[in-house]
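Quick question, first post here. What does this chain look like in 3D?
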Amino acid sequence: MSRRFGSVRARATLGATFVVAAALLAAGAAVLLSLRSSLTGQAGGQAERTARTVAAQLALGTPYDKLSSLDDDERVVQVVDANSEQAAATEDLERISGAGTSVARAQEDTGDDTSEEPGEEPGQEPGEDGGSGDPDDDSAQDSLEPGEIGDETHFDDGSATVDGDTADYRFADVDVRDPKKGLLTVYAGASLAAEQSAVRTALTVMLIGFPLLLAVVAGVTWLVTRRALRPVEDIRREMAAITAAAELTRRVPEPDTHDEVARLARTTNETLAALETSVERQRRFVADASHELRSPIASLRTQLEVGVAHPGLLDVPGAVEDTVRLQRLAADLLLLARLDAGEGPVAGARVDLAALAREEAAGRPDVAVEPVEPESVEPEPVEPEPVEVAGSRGQLGRVLANLLDNAHRHARSAVTVTVRRAGGQAVVEVADDGDGVPEADRERIFERFVRLDDARGRDDGGAGLGLAIARDVAVRHGGTLTVRETPTGGALFELRLPIA
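> Answer (accepted):
Ran it through. Tokens below.
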């Protein structure tokens, strides 16, 4: 169960259901409040119209028994005189409560038409510790002229008992001065039964409909997320199969869409392709390294076995040469392994490429380091200006040594090294006067164990790792290593590194 609810689909379904539930609760509450307010307002309007109709009749001196609204079954009306005593009321009206005044009530069945509220003395006028209003309201009532109706209407919620049935009403009270009877207050109430019925109906619909709607939302979200995540499950299943079978040639299915899942599938396939290339490269590297190591080891073993059987025939110089070759090959393989592991230059270290080029060229009679002369200075022999880069002195020295060794093997007579600045880069050019590199092979020569002079014996050439090491070191230092043709047809290797 915990695993199921820990899935993306379950979390999405729960989240969507929760959001919709919160929205429905807020919307339902707003609808109920709005409905209740609207219907209560309508009932208040009806009560006010009834109160003012009765007040208009009283202002004209209409007798109580002739008031037309007293026999309305939908509304209740009560007329209270200045002594807070009931003067007229709807037929069968027994009691009014909560109508804005504590004395506005129908007479009880006792028949005592002169009953007064506790604390009220007989003959006390409204506003003298009794009645329904404050002093300001009393002054407003006293200012009414005979036959005049008050402008203000007061509203309140209460209940009324008619013929034994008690119901809720919305009451409105209006003051009027009868020409003969003096100041009167008309209380009219409109039933709130319709409002309560509508609210109950709406609440019942919400209580039944909202759970059903939430169930529909949850179901639809579950199905939609299931369909949306199906390609992800296909990718996961295929990746599990690839891992179990260790078959990097397989690829995950890519959906025919342009969404995040499709981009995930494409990225996964690109990663698988990169892994396949890396594994294949490592496999070839191990095979080529084994092949390259086997030759000097076999030669050295043969010489030592011959020396054991016939000491006079031991070729010591040849054994030393094979040992040195084996040692260099092992050093190259170790450096490549460190580069593949991500070894980079030491942060903060600086190397003067001009000085390093002179050091590597020393002792090589066919190598000339050419200085770069400023255009504003007369031509004269000068030393190359310092060109500093950030990096490892040992690794950059290895790059220059490998480039010089390669140029020496292919040059006819001379090798030229030039160190200069070009914008924000340091440029080292190693040129020879040999046959050059065919354009089709100018990238392939930087691959490991690749040699274009396969016709020569392996003892005359390297193992095909020098240029691969040189490019890997250049890339690790944030630079590039390329080859092109010199004006005379030879090969020109160009190393570019960022200036420190």
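Residues 345-373+384-498 form a domain with the Heat Shock Protein 90 fold (CATH 3.30.565.10).
Residues 100-136, 373-382, 454-459 have pLDDT under 50 and may be disordered.
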